[in-house]
Design a protein that fits this description.
Blueprint lengths: L1 E5 L7 H10 L4 E7 L18 E3 L5 E3 L3 H12 L6 E8 L6 H4 L1 H11 L4 E6 L7 H17 L9 E6 L10 E3 L4 E2 L6 E4 L5 E4 L6 E3 L5 H6 L3 E5 L10 H10 L9
Parallel strand pairs: 1-2, 1-5, 2-4, 5-6, 6-7, 8-13
Antiparallel strand pairs: 3-4, 7-13, 9-12, 10-11
The structure holds manganese (II) ion.
Manganese (II) ion (MN) binds next to strand 5 and helix 4.
């Protein structure tokens, strides 16, 4: 099995090193990851700056671009083979609920998925790398079991996995979850720079708004790993009828009957 590993924290982050070490024994593993931290870059592609690929002493390749750039380059020209799986992470911090829209960790996995390759995004819930060895072991177990049961290599899918920052004997089992929701982010933070101009810093992510049973927030708070299958179609199917009527009211032509 051939696995492409990416992340959004950069190729030197402890999380991607741990993931590589955990997977390299039973698969052909290649790392192509951003040179610098690209958290919250989602699926961004770099179109107006040339990208360069360099190789670190440990064999990891790094790119002066985004997570999606890395996977895009790897799949469309850098690698001379097609990986069976794209794995992203292990991220430094949770990617639950609305985070999945912003997450570069999910973005890297999504880029694989968009190219028809099954993909998994792994994140550790806390942001301190505590028990990273346990998270890497759990990631390995999941990938290895999926490979053994021939669950990789069929139609592409995209999985978002969050792992609580717990010791092995505290770790619960894996729960299938829907995404929860967060409140809107905290306010922007302003500071004067040395020249008296105002700097704006994006505020922290909001607290959980929907962390009911069945969500990723709920499962991980109970000490379980959460797994959520993601899709890309953002169409609001539940309200299509409402919008159909609304567009009619707007006296604009809709659909083939219009
Ligand atoms: Mn990150």
């Amino acid at each position: 099995m051939k696995i492409l590993i990416c992340n959004d924290d950069g190729y030197q982050a402890p999380g991607i090193v741990a993931l590589y070490e955990a997977l390299k024994d039973f698969a052909q593993v290649e790392v192509v990851a951003p040179e610098h931290n690209n958290s919250a870059k989602s699926n961004a592609l770099t179109l107006n700056t040339p990208l360069y690929v360099a190789k670190a002493a440990n064999g990891f390749r790094y790119v002066n671009g985004t997570p999606a750039d890395c996977v895009h380059i790897a799949l469309t020209g850098l690698l001379d083979y097609r990986p069976d799986l794209v794995v992203s992470g292990i991220n430094n911090g949770a990617n639950m609920g609305d985070d999945t829209i912003y997450s570069g960790t999910v973005g890297a996995a999504m880029e694989g998925y968009l190219f028809g390759v099954p993909a998994i995004a792994f994140s550790q819930v806390e942001r301190n790398w505590q028990h990273l060895d346990v998270a890497a072991q759990k990631a390995r177990e999941l990938v290895q079991q999926m490979a053994q049961q021939n669950l990789i290599g069929q139609a592409p899918w995209l999985l978002n996995v969050n792992i609580p920052s717990l010791a092995l004997d505290q770790m619960g089992h894996m729960k299938l979850c829907r995404l929860g929701r967060r409140h809107a982010a905290e306010p922007v933070i302003t500071q004067p720079n040395p020249r008296g101009e105002t700097m704006y810093w994006i505020g922290a992510a909001g607290q959980a708004k929907d962390d009911a049973e069945g969500t990723d927030f709920h499962a991980t708070a109970q000490g379980h790993m959460s797994m959520t299958p993601l899709k890309i179609d953002l169409t609001d199917y539940a309200h299509l009828n409402y919008w159909s009527q609304t567009v009619t009211k707007l006296q604009m032509v809709i659909g083939s009957a219009g």
